Amino acid sequence: MTKSALAAAVLLLATAGAPAADLRAISVVHENGRYHLKSEVWFAADSEAIWRVLTDFDDYERISSAFVDAYDVPPDEQGRPRFYTRMEGCLLFFCRSIERYGYLLLKPVEEIVAVTEPEQSDFKYCRERWQLQQDGEGTLLHYDFEMEPDFWVPPVIGPWIIKRTLEVDGRDAIGRIEAIARGETPKPVGE
After folding, report:
1. pTM (2 decimals)?
2. CB 172 within 8 A of CB 64
3. Cβ burial 133-151 (10 Å sphere, 16+ → b, else e)
4. Count of CB atoms situated within 10 Å of the CB of 176
5. 36 within a domain of the structure (yes/no)
6. Tens digit of each residue's pLDDT (9 = 90 or more) over 132-150
């Protein structure tokens, strides 16, 4: 066995036993026109690496198939980092492109808050909060997302579909976030 083959085998064995992201809790509630998602995830990556992934909107298209376009935009007049996202999706036969501009409130490596600017977005209200905590060899992430759309949602079935979409997309994204944080290639979006 050559040295490079031996090194590859050792690397494969070392990463094969590495723990994977663990979704410990998730809930999605629809109440008074607002959707509220809460989750707790443990990542096999350090807090700084997870922080870098979550604050780099230029890379969001690799995290979730919901993002068709996402990038960092110049800071606002107060110097706060800003972002843009465009998502596309369908509720039954109603398909739509949803835009969002916002700014970040950062407490480095501990907390990220993304606040949507409703006047430039398709949301009446939208706020996300990520709280990161080093936990052993990994990071415990508490995520809180609340939004009120500024677009028509079909009554009865629409709220159920949005809740399901938030939960499914969230579950799919955690493995990709962890892979990017660990410097690995995430599985392709949509798989």
Report:
1. 0.83
2. yes
3. eeeeebbbbbbebebbbee
4. 22
5. yes
6. 999 999 999 999 999 999 9
